[in-house]
């Protein structure tokens, strides 16, 4: 009997130890992670594993690297969140790439949105969560609502030039008018160097020069030109547009490298620093590429004036930036993870790294400073200068001034053809009118 009593006592003690052990590990089996099988938190204090896809434009290597670095830094600091980068390099336009991803059911959960109204009408995106609004200094609205967390403010484009090439050609100061600029191109040609390199293989790059002339002759004087064109109150055959495209054709025919149609945007920096061309018309995102290609390359930057000596640049805000997809918005765990990433992306230290890499103009309400180069300081000064007219590219306007979404690429390709075939500008502008009206009518159906 004494033996049975001792055995019974040992059994009770063992049972008590097992119960206490179970309480200590939250009731799970030994070695359990403390989360349920579907990844949701079971109250054990460990965060649930969440993942979302992200998509952004990859045409500019510096921007691509900067966003990739931000994703890596965020996931290292937040191991419970997996970000699947579905971005791809392509010579197609970013709009076409997003439409393709949508068509195959792979529209990103968090997307860099540049054509907000297009995808809003398609029901693919939702409003930016209101608790993120206070991060930013300005938030353009579409239909009275905010959809985007702007990566940066729109940056001016201008002439990036080799100081050595200018010196060799006897150009001692930056031009004060467009006619002075043309005279400088003759000096560069006479010195034996190709004046201008263009990355025409990438269709978006065509917009740099085309919009330079459209802004000078059209948008700087009439910001509502697009809405008037939709209403057929103005025409591509009007004198101001014909003049803009005549200047574009003359420039490409006389001063642009002959291989422009087969040159990619990401090749232009190396061509410039190698001394094969004297100038590139682009934005501050190229500064990093140039410095990486040759840290000792001496270059300058200026806003190219019009014939009257006025400087008109891209610089108005537009509805673009990080945007949540409608499908992802149905999953609160994804929404929370994407909001966390957006807050991280725009946090002072992280955002400064991004801006420094892309030479960007900050969009945040809280001031973010970084060491600006000589060239970037010129850009920042342009943005502060009230005498400089700020405008937008043909496809960046919104609301009543939005153009048919497919027209931009069609028009850029038409202008490529006009140069290659030495076409009559007035006749090509008639083609532009006809296509514009066709697309407007198609969009109404």
How would you describe the overall organization of this protein?
By secondary structure, the chain is an alpha/beta fold. It contains 16 helices and ten strands. It is 45% helix and 10% strand. Strand 1 (50-55), helix 2 (61-77) and strand 2 (81-85) form a beta-alpha-beta unit. Helix 7 (203-219) packs across helix 15. The longest helix is centred in the first third of the chain and has 23 residues, at 2-24. It is globular, with a radius of gyration of 28 Å.
* End-to-end Cα distance: 95 Å
Number of helices: 16
Tell me the series of helices and strands, N- to C-terminal. Answer: HEHEHEHEHHEHHHHEHEEEHHHEHH
Number of strands: 10
Largest sheet: 4 strands, mixed
Sheet-strand content, in percent, reads 5-15%
Overall mean confidence score, pLDDT: 90
Quaternary structure of the protein:
single chain
User: Structural class per helix/strand content?
Assistant: alpha/beta
The whole-angstrom Rg is 28 Å
What low-confidence regions span 5 or more consecutive residues with pLDDT below 50? 1-45
Helicity range of the residues?
Answer: 40-55%
What characteristic shape results from the CA principal axes? globular
Order of strands, main sheet, comes to 2-1-3-9
């Amino acid at each position: 009997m004494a033996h049975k009593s001792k055995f019974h006592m040992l059994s009770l003690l063992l049972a008590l130890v097992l119960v206490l052990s179970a309480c200590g590990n939250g009731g799970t089996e030994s070695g359990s992670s403390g989360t349920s099988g579907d990844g949701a938190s079971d109250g054990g204090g460990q965060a649930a594993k969440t993942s979302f896809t992200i998509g952004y434009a990859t045409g500019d290597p510096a921007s691509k690297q900067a966003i990739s670095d931000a994703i890596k830094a965020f996931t290292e600091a937040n191991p419970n969140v997996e970000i699947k980068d579905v971005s791809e390099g392509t010579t197609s336009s970013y709009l076409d790439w997003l439409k393709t991803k949508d068509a195959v059911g792979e529209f990103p959960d968090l997307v860099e949105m540049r054509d907000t109204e297009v995808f809003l009408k398609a029901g693919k995106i939702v409003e930016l969560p209101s608790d993120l609004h206070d991060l930013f200094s300005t938030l353009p609205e579409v239909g009275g609502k905010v959809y985007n967390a702007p990566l940066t403010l729109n940056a001016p484009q201008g002439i990036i030039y080799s100081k050595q090439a200018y010196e060799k050609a006897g150009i001692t100061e930056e031009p004060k008018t467009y006619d002075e600029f043309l005279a400088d191109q003759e000096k560069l040609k006479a010195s034996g160097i190709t004046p201008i390199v263009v990355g025409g293989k990438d269709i978006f790059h065509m917009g740099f020069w085309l919009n330079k002339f459209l802004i000078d002759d059209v948008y700087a004087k009439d910001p509502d030109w697009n809405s008037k064109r939709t209403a057929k109150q103005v025409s591509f055959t009007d004198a101001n547009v014909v003049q803009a495209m005549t200047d574009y054709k003359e420039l490409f025919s006389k001063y642009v490298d002959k291989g422009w149609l087969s040159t990619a945007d990401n090749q232009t920096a190396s061509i410039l620093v190698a001394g094969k061309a004297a100038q590139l018309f682009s934005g501050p995102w190229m500064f990093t590429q140039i410095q990486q290609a040759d840290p000792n390359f001496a270059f300058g930057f200026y806003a190219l004036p019009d014939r009257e000596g006025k400087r008109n640049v891209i610089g108005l805000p537009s509805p673009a930036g990080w945007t949540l997809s409608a499908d992802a918005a149905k999953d609160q765990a994804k929404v929370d993870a994407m909001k966390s990433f957006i807050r991280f992306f725009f946090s002072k230290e992280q955002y400064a790294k991004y801006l420094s890499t892309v030479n960007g103009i900050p969009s945040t309400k809280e001031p973010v400073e970084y060491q600006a180069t000589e060239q970037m300081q010129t850009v920042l000064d342009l943005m502060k200068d009230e005498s400089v007219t700020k405008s937008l590219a043909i496809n960046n306007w919104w609301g009543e001034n939005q153009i048919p979404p497919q027209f931009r690429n069609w028009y850029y390709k038409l202008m490529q053809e006009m140069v290659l075939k030495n076409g009559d500008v007035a006749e090509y502008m008639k083609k532009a009118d006809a296509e514009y009206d066709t697309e407007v009518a198609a969009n109404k159906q």
